[in-house]
Design a protein that fits this description.
Strand content: 15-25%
Pfam families: Trypsin
Order of helices and strands: HHEEEEEEEEEHEEEEH
Radius of gyration: 19 Å
CATH superfamily of the domain at 222-327: Trypsin-like serine proteases
Number of strands: 13
Enzyme class: hydrolase
Domain Peptidase S1: 117-338
Distance between the termini: 42 Å
CATH class of the domain at 222-327: Mainly Beta
Biased composition (Basic and acidic residues): 28-37
Protein name: trypsin
Length: 340
């Protein structure tokens, strides 16, 4: 039986995950190191990344697929694994401890889709002035400023607009540097064909309640003039984890990665890649985006060519990051802005 993993975030406090800080259940973030955890705790941590709060767990069983038919057959993964090999979790910071049921799900779920910057380094301060932080009392996703009043992010980052504040001009998200602008969102618009099952059309537009002041710390990034070519080096940025299961950094991180061929992308994720996705990274692993980077920019030759979307693990060999192919959405972006 196929279970779909819900992809909405658990709600922590204003900051969660820094070294030694309190996390749900009375644990400390430093105890999340897999190397020091007993097996049960590792399973608990895994479940925390892929399942939303316990009140929604019952919705996992017997859900309908996008065509409206009950999925009751057994599904195998790319290597013939069990049903959990088909589970897709976007690069989202999902952290909740859900009890024994979730531990069972986690034990059977090695094929995870996460988000972060691994193998990169601190960006030069304010070198990515289009990068924004989406906040609902804490940073939960990234985004890109495309004009003074609109931000592009990932559809799987969706929250109601009244909950989202957009922080522009950030570098260290836990220090007031005097360069920041914080503006409430007035609209959050997912792509109408976004599919949370396949993560296709993973793009969202956010309208700011008032225009941002454009300056050296806040600048719009150009949309693609054409689709990016294989082999082009791009910059991926975000405040996501720098290693799997390690807390997020305070400062904006950057990594350089090449655009991979469509063939390599599809070979890494058989049956999972649509025409609206591109892969970037290194097949040998080591550099990637990770949890907390979702919705953030992939900038190639000064244009926004990708949005951090999903991937198996973080920087694993043969599993590059998968990104929304922004060049396919120029018309939708223009039409949506004009209508709103």
């Amino acid at each position: 039986m196929v279970m779909r993993v819900l992809r909405q975030p658990w709600q922590p406090g204003p900051r969660w995950g820094g070294p030694g800080e309190a996390v749900p259940g009375g644990q400390r973030a430093k105890d999340d190191d897999p190397a020091t955890q007993p097996a049960e705790e590792r399973l608990r941590a895994l479940s925390a990344r892929i399942v939303e709060p316990l009140s929604a767990v019952t919705a996992l069983v017997g859900q309908l697929d996008p065509a409206g038919e009950s999925r009751t057959e057994t599904m195998t993964g790319p290597a013939g694994g069990n049903l959990a090999s088909a589970m897709a979790v976007p690069r989202y910071l999902l952290r909740a401890l859900l009890g024994d049921l979730c531990l069972c799900l986690a034990a059977a779920a090695p094929y995870m889709y996460e988000d972060h910057i691994v193998g990169g380094s601190e960006c030069a301060a304010h070198s990515q002035p289009w990068q924004v932080s989406l906040n609902i009392g804490y940073h939960f996703c990234g985004g890109s400023l495309i004009n003074s009043q609109w931000v592009v992010s990932a559809a799987h980052c969706y929250q109601t607009a009244s909950r989202i504040s957009v922080r522009i001009g950030e570098h260290n998200i836990f220090v007031n540097e005097g360069t920041e602008q914080q503006i409430q969102a007035s609209k959050a618009i997912q792509h109408p064909q976004y599919n949370s099952w396949t993560i296709d059309n993973d793009i969202m537009l956010i309208k700011l309640s008032s225009p941002a002041t454009l300056n050296q710390y806040a600048q719009a990034i150009a949309l693609p003039s054409s689709c990016v070519n294989t082999g082009v080096m791009c910059t991926i940025s975000g405040w996501g984890e720098t290693q799997t299961s390690v807390g997020s950094p305070d400062v904006l991180m950057c990594v350089q990665a090449p655009v991979l061929s469509d063939t390599s992308c599809r070979n890494s994720y058989p049956g999972d890649i649509t025409n609206n996705m591109i892969c970037l990274g290194y097949l040998e692993g080591g550099k990637d985006s990770c949890q907390g980077d979702s919705g953030g920019p992939v900038v190639c030759n000064g244009e926004l060519q990708g949005i951090v979307s999903w991937g198996r693990g973080c920087a694993l060999p043969n599993y590059p990051g998968v990104y929304t192919k922004v060049c396919n959405y120029n018309a939708w972006i223009a039409q949506t802005i004009a209508a709103n």
